[in-house]
Amino acid sequence: MGSLIVEFQEQTIGSTGDSHVSLIQNIFSEEQVEESWEAGFSFEVELGNVFDVYGAKAGFLLELGGHYNRGEIVTQSVSVEESLEIRSDFGQVQSNFGIAGTYYVKPYAYWANSGALVLDYKVDIPQGNNFWRDHYNAPDLAFSLPWRYDEHKGIPFPGNDPGYEQRTRDIAMSDPEPAGGDTLTIGARIRNLGLQDVSSPFMVHFYYGNPVSNGILIAETLVDTVIASRQSHNVFVEWVIPEEYGLSELNNARIYVQINPENQINNEIHDNNNMGWAPVISGSIVTSITEQMEHPEQFLLHQSYPNPFNPATTIGFELPEQADVRLEVFNMLGQRVSVLVNDLKAAGYHEARFDASQLASGVYIYRLSTGTFSKSMKMMLLK
After folding, report:
1. Can you list the domains of the chain with their CATH numbers?
2. Mean per-residue pLDDT pooled into runs of 10, the chain (383 residues)
3. How many Cα atoms occupy the beta-carbon half-sphere of 54 within 13 Å?
């Protein structure tokens, strides 16, 4: 997540009343925030370093966004030099949307690893029927589309371009300034925003230009791994840019990516967030597409795929940093039946294959352990 600044008191959200939290940061300098306060309470916050954002220093001009997920920047940002306030108004539970019960919200503020100042919150969803379980208990493959509702908020799109409804930061290029004849690696982060895992294979199409207006299909890939609820999966393709594409053409070109174009996942909550684009030439300072797409912000253990399985399945896990990793499998008696990984692993996404040819049918537990993280999940062998 980054460096925690403050955890606010838990807010109770019901059908009446109102509450808000506010964080003010004042006098930014390159190495530290000299003064900061919330609700009139002053305290000092030290930053251990100047953050390095994809090779560019971010300290004096702080990146600020709206809502973040595990430190990922998924909203547009602005820069400030001296002071800023970020505030969250929680309001009331709206019964006309079918929402009932009492929600307990725990706001907190932190410095993200990217150098962003983040105000976020955790919420306990009431048990039983509620809005989220009633409306989001299905898969929802998506890109984050942070500019999508700007027009409805009275905020003009950049350059008054309505195409920014589909602009996303979930698509990245390996080279910020490619040229004709280059081989460009394109990465896309596929999110599942629903409360149900995506376990069936689906296609992802990559286009040079908008497919709605004669865009050219340049690559496609099959996603055949489980994307757990509220998690994501990165896919990569390579495109050899035609020699005749000059700078003037590429400078205004866009790569569009379409998730599930063949409707193989036919019970999605939404299908209007399955398309996004990014410019071919970004002008950004990046060290590699791996840094942009592959390094997660936290430890993650994925559901094995396929599940149930016979006789083998694949277990995926993600590391935000280099770590000594141990991945083990146990039977329901607690007996270890296999050690799949016992090694030092680099940050990023990893997979391990579990072959249960010599084991009996039943439920097995696999556990990922590092020095600071441990999680177990179940899988079923059916012979």
Report:
1. 3-128 (no CATH), 142-293 (2.60.40.10), 300-381 (2.60.40.1930)
2. 65 70 54 30 26 28 30 33 63 64 73 63 65 77 87 81 90 86 90 89 96 94 89 88 91 94 91 93 54 62 83 85 92 93 85 91 94 89 89
3. 20
